Amino acid sequence: MKVCVIGLGEVGFPTAMYIKNKGIETYGYDINPIKVEKAVKEGITAFINWDDVPPANVYIICVSTSIRGNQPDLSSVFEVCKRISQKPGTLKLVSIESTIIPGTCRRIYNEIFNNRVHLIHVPHRYWSKDPINYGVKQLRVMGAIDHESLELGLNLYQKILEIPIHVVSSIEIAELSKIVENAYRYVEIAFAEELRMICEKLGLNYNEVRDACNTKWNVKILEAREGIGGHCLPKDIKYLISLTPYHTLLNSAVKVDEQYRKWLSKVKNVNK
User: Fold this and answer.
1) Span 70-82, mean pLDDT?
2) Which helix (H) or strand (E) holds 4?
3) How far is CA 180 from CA 131, 176, 250, in A?
4) Are 149 and 175 contacting, i.e. CB atoms less than 8 angstroms apart?
5) Which of 84, 87, 141, 262 makes a 20 to 30 Å CA pair with 30?
């Protein structure tokens, strides 16, 4: 088996290392020379020129996706899939781990791969702050374009890579699950932020109120910190917002975080 990991960033690099450490012949590809150099130093056969990448049995896509004008920008995933489709040799299995929206995989399967590959979606859950417990090897969701793709995917992830998998009935459910996870987390944090502003306005200690509420078995209010940062949460809630007209709560959470950041800035200036 030969596996090519495309995108050697925060998710792709540890993924390539994990696969390599399983004794599997692993290639890496990235357009960033610094990331390629880092991978090479760790013993991964990595390339910056796509034409230099040898044909593989498995392609794992870990490129970043983004937002453009409040709409999902998945161009990086589409571009990578076009390159894979043009790679000579027999294509076996393509796994998209990048964050996408429902319908993306099926469109790629039909329009780019012309139904001639096995395609799965296994959205990553990698958390760089705790790669031991929440790294490459943790419970993951898997959806597949068809039954044969699912069997090949389970053989790779469960049997060979020893990654626990929760199988869903369609690839669209897997696509949606990722952005729902992060949007849910966003809303949880936004609630904590708004509650902190309420407590401060009432002259009450937020942390004490939080601790009191969290003594109830089904309540777990989060900390309110410096605003909702990072790449994934702010992006993924906008992905979910973009899908349907039902986003009142989601939009409100985004506005709460914006309000909280302004409030926090004023508080810090007063306390200087």
Assistant:
1) 96
2) strand 2-6
3) 22, 6, 11
4) no
5) 141
Q: Where in the chain is the domain with CATH 3.40.50.720?
A: 2-169
| DSSP one-letter string for 192-252 | HHHHHHHHHHHT--HHHHHHHHTTSTT--PPP--S-S-SSHHHHHHHHHHTT-S--HHHHH
**Which architecture, in CATH terms, is 2-169?**
3-Layer(aba) Sandwich (3.40)
Please tell me whether residue 72 adopts helix, strand or coil conformation.
strand
What is the CATH T-level fold of the domain 176-270, as seen in this structure? N-(1-d-carboxylethyl)-l-norvaline Dehydrogenase; domain 2 (1.10.1040)
Report which of 123, 127, 146 is spatially closest to residue 135, judged by C-alpha positions.
127
d(CA 270, CA 259): 17
Residues of the chain with CATH 1.10.1040.10: 176-270
Q: How far apart are the first and last CA of the chain?
A: 60
* Nearest-angstrom CA–CA distance, 50 and 63: 14
Helix (H, G, I), strand (E, B) or coil at 169: coil
Which pair of structure tokens corresponds to residue 136?
Answer: 């490459």
Give tens-digit pLDDT for 58-70.
999 999 999 998 8
Return d(Cα 85, Cα 11) in angstroms, integer.
23
pLDDT 10s digits, 118-137: 999 999 999 999 999 999 99
Give the span between the Cα atoms of 97 and 11, in whole angstroms: 9
Unique residue bearing structure tokens 């299995």: 93
The answer to whether 121 and 106 are in contact (CB under 8 A) is: no
Q: So what's the pLDDT on residue 269? A: 82
d(CA 109, CA 90): 16
